[in-house]
Every structure is written in C-alpha cells, then in structure tokens.
Amino acid sequence: MFRYIAVALVVIVAGILVAAATRPDTFRIERAIVISAPATKIFHYVNDFHQWGVWSPWEKLDPAMKRSYAGPPSGNGAVYEWQGNGKVGQGRMQIVDATEPQHVIIQLDFLKPMEGHNRAMFNFLTVGADTRVVWTMEGPSPYISKLLGLVFNMDRLIGGDFEKGLANLKATSER
Q1: In this predicted structure, what is the pLDDT of residue 147?
Q2: DSSP annotation of 151
Q3: Do residues 165 and 135 lie in contact, with contact meaning Cβ atoms separated by under 8 Å?
Q4: 174: phi > 0 → left, psi -120 to 50 → alpha, else beta; which?
Q5: How many domains does the chain have?
Q6: Is residue 148 part of a domain?
Q7: Residue 17 lies in a domain
Q8: Which range marks the domain in which residue 40 is found?
Q9: Do 121 and 29 touch, CB atoms closer than 8 A?
Q10: By the 8 A CB rule, do 43 and 35 touch?
Q11: First-to-last CA distance in the chain?
Q12: Angstrom distance (rounded) from CA 134 to CA 2
C-alpha cells in the first residue's frame, strides 16, 4: 500500500512540474481606462516619480517606506528606488523612454521579496476630448513564476492593483 501511495505522489509531483514547464516564458498584464483630461496632464503624473504618491496603488501600503530619487526630476533617466515592508518589498524604476504625451516606458527591477526584471509601459491615446491610458507590464517568467502561476492568477492579482492605480490616476487627473 505504501508503495502505491509513493508512486502516486511521484506521478502527481512530476505532473505539476511538467505542467509548470509548459507555461509561457514571458508574461504580460494590461489594463486600460478612459480619463476625461488631456494626455499632457495625465502624462505629468506618470512621467514624474515624485507624483506617484498621488495615484500609485503601492505608495500607501507602507507609511515608513524609504524612497530615493536620482537623475533628472522627470523623464528619460529619472530613477526611483524604494525599500519597504513585505507588501512593497524593495526595487528600482528608471524611465528609459518618455515621449510627451504619447508614452512612458520604465525599466522595473524588483529586488525583494522576489527578484524580477520587467518593463512597464504607459500609453496615452487621445480619444476626442478624453485620453485612453493603457498600463502594461511584461517580462520574463522564470520557472518559479510558472510554478506559482499554477496556484495564483498573477494577472488577476497584479491587474487589480493596476485597476486601482488607474482609477486613482483618473480621479486625480479629472480634478
């Protein structure tokens, strides 16, 4: 009986490991919102890391979070580093391409609790008097992420934060 249980466990674990290995090597999370404000106004809140405290869903998770800024105050080369509790971890963002008012592209490096190197993009599309803002994050999906993805729906987890951030950006920009 013990032998059958051991074989069954080995088969189940092997199946889980194989299932994880077949998942995609990259991930992409995207959310969008229409904001009743000009793209130039919204662009300012994203292109300047000093403004992220107004709308970012992660800024209020740790009141004691340490922040530092380097490079120019906004735009290409601007850097924002943070170190906080387990909810926000530690990381670094750098704007690598900002074209007003079309897009902001950010190199996003998470250091803790889990290392990850991704790219975040904000695209601003004028639609009449409104602006459609598309927030995207994409990057590699290492094996451990594939394995966790079998249990946790990362699109739903992170996408929910994107939705909160976009709602905050909308409320701020429409004032």
Answers
A1: 75
A2: T
A3: yes
A4: alpha
A5: 1
A6: yes
A7: no
A8: 26-173
A9: no
A10: no
A11: 69
A12: 54
Average pLDDT over residues 114-120: 93
Query: Could you tell me the CATH number of the domain that includes residue 118?
Result: 3.30.530.20
Residue linked to tokens 């699109």: 155
- With CA atoms as reference, report the closest residue to 105 among 93, 96, 114: 96
**DSSP character string of 101-135:** TTEEEEEEEEEESS-EEEEEEEEEEEETTEEEEEE
Is pLDDT above 80 for 146?
Answer: no
Confirm whether 20 is domain-assigned.
Answer: no
- Residue pair 85/64 in contact (Cβ under 8 Å)? The answer is yes
Q: Residues 9-62: pLDDT tens digits?
A: 888 888 887 887 888 788 899 999 999 999 999 999 999 999 999 999 988 889
Residue type (1 letter), 175: R
Residue 85 lies in a domain: yes
